[in-house]
Amino acid sequence: MNTVVEQANPQNWYLLLSTILFSIGVMGVLMRRNALIILMCVELMLNSVNLLLVSFSAYAGNTDGQVFVFFIMVVAAAEVAVGLALLVSIYRNIGTTDIDVLSKLKW
Amino acid sequence: MMNSQLIFFMLAALSILSALFVVFSKNPIYSVLWLIVCFFSIAGHYIMLNAQFLAIVHIIVYTGAIMVLMLFTVMLLNLNKESEPHKSVMYKGAAVLTGGMLMLVLLAAMRSTQLGTYVAPGRAETGFVQNVGLKLFTDFLLPFEMTSVLFIAAMIGAVVLAKKEVH
Amino acid sequence: MDNFLALTNLIIPASLLALFPLLGFFVTALFGKYLKHAAGWIASGMILISFSISLYLFMNLPGEAALNFNLFDWIKWGSVNLSFGILIDHLSLIMLLVVTGIGFLIHIYSIGYMHHDEGFTRFFSYLNLFIFFMLVLVMANSYLVMFIGWEGVGLCSYLLIGFWFKNDAFNDAAKKAFIMNRIGDLGFLMGMFLMLFHFGGLDYTTVNAAAQALPLGNTLIVSITLFLFIGAMGKSAQLPLYTWLPDAMAGPTPVSALIHAATMVTAGIYMIARSNILYAMAPFTMEVVMWVGVATSIFAAIIGMKQNDIKKVLAYSTVSQLGLMFAALGMGAFESGMFHVVTHAFFKALLFLGAGSVIHAMGGAQDIRQMGGLAKYIKITWFTFLIATLAISGIFPFAGFFSKDEILAVAFASHKEVWILLSISSMITAFYMFRLFFLTFNTSFRGTEEQKHHLHESPITMTLPLSILAVFAAIAGFWGMPAVFGQTHFFAAYLAPVFEGSKQYLGEAHEASHATEWMLMGIATVAALFSIAVAYALYISKKWLPEADEETTGFAKWVANKFYIDEFYDKVIVKPLLVVSDIFFVLIDKLIIDLIVMATAWIVGFTGRTIRLAQTGNTGLYIFAMVIGMMVLMFFQLVY
């Protein structure tokens, strides 16, 4: 099993892909008004970063990057759990998940 | 074109397209489903990068747990195409513009970065369970344990937040 | 080498000495609510520990050595290094013993005296804090650290004068004491600034060494000592800053005994004795000190003759005695001044505590016109008060006789006119003290029937300190027997190493012949006895009573109203100050400062009101702003 896998693709490609995915995530966050979709777009951004970390880990032959990805996943899972709970609670109280309606935080 | 390149382009196209669908779908359920597709394609990238274990964990955690949770929430809140709020075209345009500009800035940053040149090709066993586990339980033991505390806190928080108020 | 070892062994006890009262302060202040009356015993216990340590130091300080060490560097810049240090020598040891010893007795006394007061624990926390600061003052090895204690005791004095803060008059008295002291403190500060600027340091060794390099009577030293003396005038209630002390009697009586008679007010004398080399090098200042002391002594004694409040009489007597001590210092007799500080601490504390016991028996009344014939109701108080009165009047063999006689002898040897004035002052003192004594304890009771029923001896916690102090008031004088009795003057010998440095500047002390000394003692005793006889004739045989306030006329009215000094200060200083401050208030404060402040506030408010409109509460916009901000930051990062 001790095969050496040739990394045929230049690392730049992965960088480019991550950047594109990240920007799409940001775009989604900016564009959508549904808090749930925004949460999903944040997940997308997190995953683009994960991809970047894994690519660096693979090209450098160092496992540390993958361990970091684990921790990011943990944090993302915790974030989703709390975020969705908040969302449900907000929906129960206000009847919507539209962020434009949630404008109590003003002067 | 080599096989690996072909696979990369196919996966990359799939990720980008599905990500775009996530953003532009009118129906939240479609968004969730497209996001699952996107995550699968990312898992494919992980396998390409010799992170086999991580790819499996990714599928289990994201697709199996997080996205199911999302789906549940969408259904629980009865979100659908009709209830979906819409923003004006101008607003959407501004969002696309800003996202595009951010991408440009990031690409510019990437260009000016000096990437390390790796002489030796990466080894296949980097992503094996054995290696990841060794790292996780030796060098990263304390953070690993801390994550369990984080999870407990998140769990309790979620229960407290989502629980119906008893009047 | 042995000395060195013995001294190093004393460092730890010396460092801990002052901390126990501080601990007591924190304990009684923080947990007073739970401790209730136990707080009094805890506070007293802390002082007892400090007293024991002082005794230990007293026993173990080898020979003529002094323990001088720095605890830590405090303020450091350039070549100046002001450190926080402790100096234990014979002078500070004497003061330590007096402060902790009398302090302990007065703590015990207060347990009885303050028993029914609702501020019981607060009182003890203040007392402990006072002892702490007094110890800091005494043990300091530099003027700066002394100043900490100096200010601290001032604060405690303020807190304790205004202890019953529900009474506005008492609060005013407290403020008066604080402000008067502040005038003096300014002088002290100026003196310190001068020393720091010219000598580059504030610890006694540096200052003394630097001063001795200058010629005798140098202007710099004269101005420094004059400034320091202003500080001493404030703290030790000398003309013209004495008016706060009589008003300070508003505080509880144990406070008057401890702070305003025995310890704090002697801080000025201690400070001058501590700076004896500086003062010895400034003959002009010595003259000033002497004459201020003499004037205060006579002036306060005259006022004391016509006071009818038992505590006011004692207050003026304190001012008068302090004047006597300053006169001694001014004549270069530092040992005699310090000796009188010690004996005075005993008998004046005893007098105040006795007065407190009388007030306790009278149910709070302080006017001697309503007393009389108390001797048979409160026997212990009567007896101890008698001893103290004899001591302050200078009757052989009580403590006051020796210390006062010593000062008079010095005066006779160097300044005959001072001797005459001080003798007159002593005569007046004997007169008004016995006037007080006779009016309080002899003839028949003049108060109401209700008060008569109430008359009772104080509890043991009060009478025990009285008795112990009475013993010391009787025998303390034997530590300083004049040469004619063929004994060594223990006190002067003990203090000699401290004042060694100043002797060379003072010139030869005039050694009076034995015959002269006998004569002086004789004159003093006869004068005192004469005064007592006059007081007896007037207030017992003729049964005179001081008339009611309205009936006083002529010169007596002037005296009874303290020569209208307070009113004079009010007219000359306070009123014009008020007018000036009114002008400043309207012109500078209202017009200029308020304009600037209000304009600033308005601009800030306006900007806020305008900018807050951007806070729409729209989350989408916030996210936009965030992303654009990130982009801009990254962009600049790239470009520059």
Describe the fold and architecture.
The complex is a heterotrimer of chains A (107), B (167) and C (640). Chain A has helices spanning 11-31, 35-60, 64-94. With 107 residues, chain A is mainly alpha-helical. Chain A is elongated. Chain C is mainly alpha-helical. In chain C, a hairpin with a 2-residue loop joins β1 (67-77) and β2. Chains in contact: A-B, A-C, B-C. Chain B binds chain C through residues 87, 91, 94-95, 98, 101-102, 105-106, 108-109, 112, and chain C through 620, 624, 627-628, 630-631, 634-635, 637-638.
Rough shape of chain B? globular
Basic shape of chain A: elongated
Query: How far from one another are the termini of chain A?
Result: 64 Å
**Helix and strand element order of chain A:** HHH
- Provide the CATH architecture of chain A: Orthogonal Bundle
User: Structural class per helix/strand content of chain B?
Assistant: mainly alpha
Measured by DSSP, the beta-strand proportion of chain B falls in under 5%
Low-pLDDT parts of chain A are 1-5
Oligomer: heterotrimer
Averaged pLDDT of chain B, please? 84
Give a short account of the largest sheet of chain A: none
Write the element-wise H/E pattern of chain B from the N-terminal end onward: HHHHHH
Radius of gyration of chain A, rounded? 18 Å
Based on DSSP secondary structure assignment, what is the total number of beta strands of chain A? 0
Assigned CATH class of chain A? Mainly Alpha
H/I helix tally of chain A: 3
* Alpha plus pi helix count of chain B: 6
Largest interface between protein chains, with number of residues from each side: A-B, 78 and 88 residues
Structural class from helices and strands of chain A? mainly alpha
